[in-house]
Amino acid sequence: MGNQQPVKTAASAPVKKRKIGNPINNEKTAGYIFTLPFTFGFLMFMVVPMAISLYYAFCQYNILQPPVFIGWDNFAKMGSDAIYQKSIGVTFYFALVSTPLRLIFALFVAMLLLENNKLSGFYRATYYLPSIIGGSVAVSVLWKRMWATDGTINRILGINFPWLGDTRTAIWVLIILAVWQFGSSMLIFLSALKQIPQSLYEAAMVDGANGWKRFWKITFPLLTPTIFFNLVMQLINGFLAFTQCYIITQGKPMYSTEFYTVYMYDQSFTYYNTGYGAAMAWVMVLIISAVTAVLFATKKFWVYDGGL
Amino acid sequence: MTKRGAAAAMAALMGAGMLAGCGSTGGTQTSAAAKTSAAAEKTTAAASAASGNSSSGDVSMVFAWWGNQTRNERTTKAIEKYQEENPGVKIDGQFSEWNDYWQKMATAAAGGQAPDIMQQDYQYINQYAKSGQLLDLKPYIDNGTLDASKWDKNMLEAGTVDGKVIAICAGMNAPALVYNKTITDEAGVTIKDNMTLDEFVAAAKTIYEKTGYKTDLSYGTVQEPMNYLLRSDGVVLFGDGKLNATKEQLTKYFQVYEDGIKEGWELGPDVYADITIGSIEQAPIVAGTSPDKSAWNTLMWSNQYTAMNKLAKEGMDLEMTTWPSPDPKKSDFIKPGQFFSVTSGTKNPEEAVKFLNYLINSTDCNDILLGERGVPINSDVADKIKSQLDETDQKIYNYIYNVVQPNCSVINPPYPDGYAEAGKALNNVVEELCYGQIDASQAADEFLAQGGAALAAKAGS
Q1: Can you tell me the ipTM of this complex?
Q2: Is residue B376 part of a domain?
Q3: Do B351 and B328 share a structural domain?
Q4: Does A165 contact B274 at a Cβ distance shorter than 8 Å?
Q5: Is B10 a member of any domain?
């Protein structure tokens, strides 16, 4: 019986033969061919390396010698690694403090730039600039000089405070640099703000709503999808921040600014504990997935999804 | 329907065309690569067939090093000269910065793509030797391809691991305390060679009282000074799988930091937070903007003296002496600044060793290199180039030959695996100590626990 089924299909096939026999005419096939360059790159440079790193996460591996499978030891090591735990705390603090501040700042500037005049294009470009250059090594070096004890900030304030040398303030130097890189969120806010119909504001004004009310009753609810998008993206960026810490503080003083990624990099390439580094990378994948999942779970409570 | 079909067909055609395009370029590349490797195989075959007449066929090798602009220019010139003299030999010089270099080498070695000849460092030779990456050069020294007759014996010893000669010293170095003589004169302090730790601390206090300038005991790079001090107790600090010092020995030296911070003559940790540790340009001795943020001294290496001297400001007279230690003769040593190694994966070991011989023993070659990597280990070469050096570089020569060499001991064995992490633990402990979080005896406990664990984790690997 089971064997008869395919025979039947084959027998009835001639009717549909033109469609089946020429799969190149199928839209799906064309789609696959179009995505081939990406698919190939994604497989070769993302999926395969990730799979390899997953294997290394369960190995003792020092790059120079072949990896040796050791099971969950790398993950167990995290439980007793004080610096690792410290770096998680620092990274969460950085991401959870710098992201909301950056978004508030981005929204504030976006609203200022909403007005159209001759110079608004120039202003938008200027305010976007820090985002392009802010992650660079050069700006990090500049930032380090500015916040040095004999640097610009102290000169302006007329004091002599070691911002980078104090465990309470060093992380804030990095947070302020991150907040200053608000450009990409700002542009997204700006375009979202322009989508809000003027008629809503006019109606509200007729009803006597003041600026504050208009913001909370119209602008903010209609922006929530954009805020949500920015929050997810920037939070992930926050967890993965690297350059600022690597160039400016190197985790000093006393690991008060040790980012997760920098510690992972040191373990992998400075101490050659590459297996441990790979395990750390995978834990970060899990952390980011969890945080994103939590954000998506809260979405229904505060994100307005009704459309305009 | 037909429109759709046509569109799909066109898309497919375009896709196919693109694929074909990709394929054809890929194809050319592969065939080119195949040709090269075929040629290489032929060369090896030819070379092995006509051994003795070796420099005939085409040999292509890679030589990698880390370094600065001067080094890159000089080394590239030396390679060009060698290629002129040895037609058929092609050497591809690849240089990078220190950090990038070691990442590149590690990944290249993992992929079986290590360069034929690589610059090596005392910190890494153990790791590379133990994982079988480096060629034993002993047979080539025995058969005369590599002429070791004029070399400093200690330096040959320093490149020997488990009885195998796996690295040849590219230049000799020694620890050097560089100080600002203008300040010490002002304070009325004389800095003499081979001073003891107590004399150094006394000088530091006087200078601080009289001029306000502080002392740079070193910070973030404490491994070497601590190593140096403990040699006076006959201890090799970083052992294989463990730290060899006792708590009392470590406490004694951590105490110097604790006192220095309390009494004010040692630079505060916040000064170091503003600079990039290890950067000569930003060292407090040359870059400090006020006495309480600058130092009268720094602990570094003799070959860095040239670079530091260039940074000296107007009226700043920089001089060089030995690092302080309770027993300078036992502590002091001459260090192989850098090494050259031939990797075990090379297809042309014979040719690689010949080039290595040229780098180390040829006066022609060293007339170009001019001891930039340190004082050459070949005494004939060292004498020959000495006359061509400027005043600063001559000072370094004199320092190594006349100050350090008569009064030093053999260098410790190469650092064990796990040294990088144990060294970081030491620097963290010193940081906590300087911030007043712990005292000297707690610092010793913490370092023994953390540094010991880092070394133990790598033992026997």
Answers
A1: 0.79
A2: yes
A3: no
A4: yes
A5: no
Which residue, among A272, A273, A274, A276, would best test binding to B if mutated, counting the most B CBs under 10 Å from its CB? A272
Residues 6+ apart with CB under 8 A from A123: A113
Q: How near does any CA of chain B get to the CA of A99, in Å? A: 25
Residue B20: what pLDDT? 37
Q: Cα(B352)–Cα(B294) distance, rounded to whole angstroms? A: 47
Q: What is the CA radius of gyration of chain B?
A: 26
Residues of B in contact with A249 (CB under 8 A): 273
- Any idea what the CATH number is for the domain that residue B383 is in? 3.40.190.10
pLDDT tens digits, B302-329: 988 888 888 888 888 999 999 999 999 9
What's the gap in Å between the CA of B213 and the closest CA on chain A? 16
pLDDT in tens, B187-239: 999 999 999 999 999 999 999 999 999 999 999 899 999 999 999 999 999 99
Q: What's the domain count of chain B? A: 2
Question: Would you call A254 and B428 a contact, using CB atoms and an 8 Å cutoff?
Answer: yes
Q: Which two tokens stand for residue A107?
A: 């929204």
Find chain A residues with C-beta within 8 A of B275's C-beta.
148
Regarding whether B135 and B281 lie in a shared domain, the answer is: no
Q: Which domain holds residue B387?
A: 57-170+337-397
Q: CA B321, CA B160: separation in Å to the nearest integer?
A: 29
CB-side exposure of A13: number of CA atoms within 13 Å? 10
Asked whether residue B14 is domain-assigned, the answer is: no
Residue of chain A with shortest Cα separation from B3: A25
Distance from CA of A139 to the nearest CA of B (A): 15
Query: Do B183 and B158 fall within a single domain?
Result: no
Q: Which domains does chain A have, with CATH numbers?
A: 81-302 (1.10.3720.10)
**Could you tell me how many residues make up chain A?**
308
Same domain (yes/no): B247, B131:
no
Judged by CB atoms closer than 8 Å, whether chains meet at B269 and A253 is answered as: yes
Q: For residue B105, what is the nearest residue in chain A, using CA coordinates?
A: A64
Is residue B165 in a domain?
Answer: yes
- Which stretch of DSSP H or E encloses residue A167? none
**How many residues are given for chain B?**
461
Q: Which A-chain residues 26-45 have CB contacts (< 8 A) with chain B? A: 26-27, 29-30, 33-34, 36-37
Residues B165 and B182 in one domain: no
